[in-house]
Amino acid sequence: MKISVQWLRELVDLGDMPVDAIARTLTMGGLEVEEITPVAPAFSGIVVAHVKSVAPHPNADKLRVTEVDAGTGETLQIVCGAPNVAAGQKVPCALVGAKLPAIGGNAGFEIKRAKLRGVESNGMLCSARELGLSEDHAGLLVLDADAPVGRDVREALGLDDVYLTLKLTPNRGDCLSMLGVARDLAALTDRALRAPAPMAVSAKEAASRAVRISAPKACGAYFGRVIRGIDPAARTPEWMARKLERAGLRPIHPLVDITNFVMLERGQPMHAFDQAKLEGAIDVRFMREGERVKLLNGETVEYQPNLLAITDASGPVALAGVMGGFDSMVTEATADVFFESAFFHPEAVQGKARALGLSSDAAYRFERGVDFAGSRAALERATALALEICGGSPGPITEAAGEFPRRAPVAVRPARVRALLGYDVDDATMRSILERLRCKLDVRADTLDVVAPTWRFDLAIEEDYVEEVARVHGYDHVPASPPRSALRMVPQPDGRRTRFELRDLLAALGYQEVVNYSFVPEAWERDFAGNERPVRLANPIASQMSVMRTTLLGGLVATLQSNLNRGETRARLFEIGRCFEGPQASLEVQPEKVAGLAFGSRFPEQWGQKAVPVDFFDVKGDVEALAGARELVFEAATHPSCHPGRCARVSLDGHPIGIVGELHPRLQQACELDRAPVVFELLAEPLLEGAAARFQGFSRMPVVRRDLAFTVAESQPAGPLVAAVRGRVPAFVRAVEVFDQYRGQGIEAGQKSLALRIVMQDTDRTLTDSDVEAVMASIREQLAQQFRAKPRT
Questions:
Q1: How buried is residue 508: exposed, middle or buried, by Cβ count under 10 Å (0-12/13-18/19+)?
Q2: pLDDT tens per residue, range 173-202
Q3: Going by DSSP bridges, is the β-strand pair 337-344/270-274 parallel, antiparallel, or unpaired?
Q4: For 625-655, how does the pLDDT look when each residue is reduced to its tens digit (9 = 90+)?
Q5: At what angle do helices 718-726 and 769-787 cross, to 10 degrees?
Q6: What is the C-alpha to C-alpha distance for residues 694 and 628, in angstroms, rounded to an integer?
Q7: Where are the domains of the chain?
Q8: Edge-to-edge strand list for the sheet holding 2-4
Q9: Which residues of the chain, if any, have pLDDT below 70?
Q10: How many C-beta atoms surround the C-beta of residue 406 within 10 A?
Q11: Per-residue confidence (pLDDT) for residue 5, from 0 to 100
């Protein structure tokens, strides 16, 4: 919204307050000033002149020789090429020595005496474009007939004015007028408001038109007045046209300009009907089926439910609060006018213009809320202006009443205000601020009962008034005190790791982190998690991202495909993120998982060794590295995303925490991969627990190593066997590991050979042969009894 500072000064006693200070005050008060723009560029030496005579140029068909009075005490001869120059006009005249503005990238220049085609010229008559006021270069800028000759044009046209472009928030519909901004500025600066108080215009004749409201919940009040005998030759005065143009509106017709001026001045949208084009009484009601109305912009609007219309006996003649009708609009031939001023509830107008593809200043204001107590005053103001500009004889005001918005008192507790603001504002200052905002106050012991003014639709609860106190009192009064808070040391379990440590460890193992969307295609959930009932999104950002993920593997495989499509042949990827496994309505279960994928060669390409594809055991080793000092248990298992015979369940402290395995051949084929990547997916929380580091001294005693080979059933996993042995050996046995397995010649069918390496070392003494043999004998006996193992010879 653009406002004129000069007009603002007419409404508020700002004294000599500079423009920058006005802009800062408005901005700090919540009415942000986006731009400060001069009305006209700098120029000097241009005055109002009276054209006394116009004669043809003797040597040029398109030039004229004029005699003008510029208030210098002598008549000036000026050669002019404007086609509209005529005797009797008042026009801008640049005297010799005048400096014209720089326009359109062209440098300004100084007016000098010159000869144009042999005729002396002592100045220049100017167009609006030459003054930098508009792009109109069709002819001279013709001024009002009463403009004083010799007066500086800047003063005569108010060109020392400045525009302020305001960026208003949607809740401040009360500031969509000069009076609204002036009221707020007067409250912010505690200056006197000088708003024009419209005087009631007495009826001069009985001409009137009956009005009624059939939709009282949509229209709170409707006022109308007939003015007869309008002068069709009347023109919009220069002062009004100037104010309209500086607000971004184009002068159209005196009656239309009056309604626009009242809207800009008071915030009350109005409409002017041609009285002769209306039939019968005016009724404010909702449109009926089959009805239509042609609007001012030429568009025809068909019936829609809950579309409020202004109607007469013939049907709709305007859309209430949106736009007037084409068939009843005023024209140059209008002799009698019917002015309308009404209050329409915001709920009745909101969204209607947008739904119809329309845009109007009236709808923009009504849907934010206008002063429901100011409709009659606006009509009186428009009547007075119409009589002043267009003449005529007014009839009585006819009115109809609907339902107004309720204004219930809101209890504002000064103690609560201070608590929310965080600093002290005394009760007297609060009352003064609310009174400056034109609120009605009823003071009780420790409470103020506040009723908002009729133009404020954004004041409904106590917190709204707290904001008003802070805004008007000034944010500069908020003390600049550093924040203070008590920091409590949270106990950190010994050995617990952070997610950053997990990321660092995976990066050290050669993996690169990726971050994928939590929304995935439904097919991924079915293929990678076997989930037939995923959590669906009510409003997905894309049709292919319609469900929430329960596994990270789909995103990793998709990232691998993207890398392969771009020429990469080796990839190690990981992601740490939330999955969503809760019920559809609550999403209560949201585990954080760590997933990884390895594809291609075990090591980057090098000359030292041949390329070997990464396999299950490479990734199994990476998973074990993630567990640190804690021991993981791997057991054969199945998973929807993994190869049925190359997948293991990973357990920690007896609880399953995830899987590791090759990608399922079905998915490998669907993703067009030449080999199966190896993947893992683990719960993050168990891995974060970690194990506390404990100091252990170095032993000076020698290490004893023994190997033990034996045969067991082919179906016997090595993991439970090793775990059982570790659970029964004495403390000086430092390690029990499988280092070989064999199938083939010398081994019975259905059997396999496993070889264990047992490492023993005591911290206090050297182990004897009898100590070592006792341990080995115990292990042989345990393996034979528990797993039916036979020594291999």
A1: exposed
A2: 999 999 999 999 999 999 999 887 778 999
A3: antiparallel
A4: 998 878 888 888 999 999 998 999 999 888 9
A5: 140
A6: 13
A7: 2-39+162-189, 44-156, 211-401, 410-475, 499-689, 704-791
A8: 2-4, 162-167, 32-38
A9: 104-107, 582-586, 690-692
A10: 5
A11: 92
Q: How far apart are CA 1 and CA 368, in angstroms?
A: 14
Neighbouring CB atoms inside 10 A of 773's CB total 11
Please identify which residue in the block is written with the tokens 């103020």. 448
Q: Which CATH number fits domain 44-156: 2.40.50.140, 2.102.10.10, 1.10.10.10, 1.25.10.10?
A: 2.40.50.140
3-class SS letters over 322-348: CEEECCCECCCCCCCEEEEEEEECHHH
Angle (CA) 690-696-697 rounded to 5° is 160
Q: Nearest-CA neighbor of 597 among 520, 663, 531?
A: 663
Global pTM reads 0.65
The amino acid at residue 596 is: G
Q: Round to whole Å and give the CA distance between 258 and 112.
A: 42
Q: Give yes or no for a contact between 676 and 660, defined as CB atoms under 8 angstroms apart.
A: no
- Find out if CATH 3.30.56.10 is the number for domain 2-39+162-189: yes
By the 10 Å C-beta count (0-12 exposed, 13-18 middle, 19+ buried), 519 is classed as middle
Angle in degrees, CA 315, 321, 322, rounded to 5 = 85
Residue with tokens 């020789």: 65
Q: Which two tokens stand for residue 695?
A: 């100091």
CA distance 29 to 21: 12
The model's pLDDT over 467-525, given as tens digits with 9 standing for 90+, comes to 999 999 999 888 888 877 888 888 877 778 889 999 999 999 999 999 999 999 999 99
Q: 3-state DSSP call for residue 270?
A: strand
The token pair that represents 434 in the structure block: 């609310």
Residue 657 corresponds to which tokens in the numbers above?
């925490």
